[in-house]
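== Folding task for one protein ==

=== Format: two labelled lines per protein ===

==== Paired sequence and C-alpha cells ====
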Amino acid sequence: MTDFKGHKIQVNQLLNFIPEGLLANLSITTRVDHYSKVLHGKKMFYLLLYSLIENEKLSQRTLEDTFNDPVFKLLFDLDKEETVCRSSISERLSKIDSGYFKQIYECIYEQFSKHYKESERQKHNLIRVDSSIVSDTVGRLMEGLNNCGKKAVKYSVAFDGILPCELQTFTSASYSSEDIALPEVVLSHVKKEKNHQNIYVLDRGLQSTRTMKAFTDDSIKFICRAKENRKYVELKSFISADQDLDFGESTLITDAKIKLYTGIPIKNKQGNIHSREELIDTEFRLIIVESKAKDGQQYWFLSNDFNLSAKEIAQAYRRRWDIEVFFRFIKQELNVSHLVSLNKNGIQVIMYMTLIVAMLILIYKKANNIGYKTAKRRMAMEVRNLAIALIVTQCGGNPDLMFKT
C-alpha cells in the first residue's frame, strides 16, 4: 500500500464519512430506485464517485467502461455479472432523483463542517457567493441561459472558505442576470442556517438596490463591490481626523452612511415603460479605497454592516477570491467545464457529485498540507491501491480468478 510520508488522513478514512445507512435510507425515502433494475441510486453514487476520482475527463462512455470494470465492482462489492451500456447511463442520469444526491452532499458537508477547529474558521463567518458559466458542448440543451449567443448552464455556489456549502444550477434564461441568481443562493443558504452570523461576500454581480434592501430587512449581512460613480446621498462620514487611512496596498477615501437610488418602472400616457430614479429609505455603508499600485484606480464596496471597520470590510472582500480558486480547481481537476449530461436533472446530479468529490479532496488536501493537483493524484493512487489489495485477497495471487479472458 502507498504510504505518503507525513499524511494525517487517508482515503479509506474519508470514505467512512459516507454513511452506508444514509444511502440505504435515502433509497427508500426518495424512491430513487423506482423502476430501476441495475443502476440503483447507491450504484450510481459509487460509479460517479469513483469515476470522478479516477478519470481526468468524465463522459458517458467513461462511465460505461468503469461500471463494467471488474475492479470497480470488487471495490464497491457489486455483482460482477451486471453490465450496462452508455444509453442506459444517459437515460438514468436524466430521470434519477437528483434530490438523492443533494441530500448525500448536504449530509457529508455537515459531517465535515463539524470537524472544523474554531481556530481554522475566520474571525467572521464569511460566505463567498459567485457563479460560473459552462457554455462548452451545451448547444443541444433543450433549455439554457444565453451566454454571448450560446446556450449555457450557470452554477452558483456559496463557499465557506473551506468547503462549498450551497449549490444552485440554472438553465432558465432569466438567471443570466446575477442580480437574480446570486440572491437565490444566499436565501437558500440562509434557510438552512437559522440564527446565523454569516456575512455574504459577493462580486459586482449584485447591483440591485431592491435586493440589498430586502437583505437588510431580513437581517442578512452582505459586502459587495459596487460600480464606481454610483449615485447616492451621503448621510454621515465615519472618517475621523486622526484615523489611519493606509490599508497597505490601498488608501481609504470614503467611509460613509448613505442612501441609494433605484429605478422604478413607470408607464407613461402612451403606454411606454421608462425608469424613474427614487431614493430608497434604507441606510447602507459605502467604502471607497484607492489602489497604490494603479494610479487613480478606485474600488467601491457596499455593505449593510456598520460594526466592522472599513479595513475589515475591505479585507473581507479580498477573501472573496477563495471562491475563484475553488472554481478553477473544479474546472481543471474535476472537469466541470464539460457536461456529461445534456439534461438539467443529469447536470444537477453530476454537479452534486462533483461537489462531494471536491469536499473529499479539499479535506484530504487540508489535512495533509498539499496542493490541489497533488491531492487529486494521491487520492486516485490510494483508491487504486485499495483495489489492488482487494484483488490480491480475493484471488490469492491468481489474477485469472478475477479477470476472465
Remarks:
- Residues 344-368 form the longest helix (25 residues).
- Residues 328 and 336 are 9 Å apart (CA to CA).
